[in-house]
Specification:
The structure is a single chain. This protein is an alpha/beta fold. The protein has two domains: 127 residues, Rossmann fold (3-Layer(aba) Sandwich); 33 residues. 38% of the residues lie in helices and 19% in strands. The chain has seven helices and eight strands. The strands form two sheets. Strands 3-2-1-4-5 form a five-stranded parallel beta sheet. The chain starts with 9 loop residues before the first strand and ends with a strand. The N terminus is likely disordered.
Length: 180
């Protein structure tokens, strides 16, 4: 997508992968966009290299630090569970996605863009009509639904919240199923 496809008043939400995979983010941003960086992302980045990248982003893009209400986090978890990816999203991923859902709902006059290389987050965004753009890695293109299958007994589960199969103790692996 080119910058010409975007109109002013964009809110661009960065996740941790956007910071850590930082390229020239200014080239990825729509004109006249406001950059948001969730508080959880600030807290998650602890490496020296990550902190250095965060400092560059703070200086060049001057992002607004944002958070969300618990009700949006709960709504996001519920949607992720229905998609079958709740266990694959971290607490920070959930907060970033909750901010996107809240913004999409509460500020419909502003356009929204999520920047992430996280495929699980991209899948969530596609299924909830949140515009998403990748940074370095190939973007998820289709909506995908997931179940979890035991590698030993092959029993399938709707959600893989536990790392091991409750039937035989084997490990659970995600398995893509047809989208609805």
């Amino acid at each position: 997508m080119s910058k010409n496809e975007f109109s002013p008043n964009y809110i661009v939400v960065l996740d941790t992968s956007a910071v850590l995979n930082m390229v020239d983010l200014q080239k990825l941003l729509p004109k006249n966009s406001e950059v948001w960086l969730p508080e959880a992302v600030f807290q998650e980045i602890i490496s020296m290299e990550g902190r250095a990248k965060l400092a560059v982003i703070n200086e060049i893009l001057t992002p607004t630090q944002v958070s969300t209400e618990q009700k949006w986090i709960e709504k996001t978890r519920k949607i992720a569970k229905n998609i079958g990816i709740n266990s694959r999203l971290s607490k920070v991923d959930i907060e970033v996605l909750a901010i996107c859902l809240q913004t999409k709902t509460m500020e419909p006059s502003k356009k929204l863009l999520l920047l992430t290389d996280d495929r699980w987050m991209q899948n969530f965004a596609i299924q909830t009509n949140i515009p998403v753009r990748n940074i370095r890695f190939r973007k998820a293109r289709k909506m995908k639904r997931w179940i979890f299958q035991c590698t030993s007994c092959k029993k399938e589960f709707a959600e893989g919240d536990q790392p091991d199969c409750p039937v035989c103790g084997g490990s659970l692996q995600p398995k893509r199923i047809a989208s609805s």
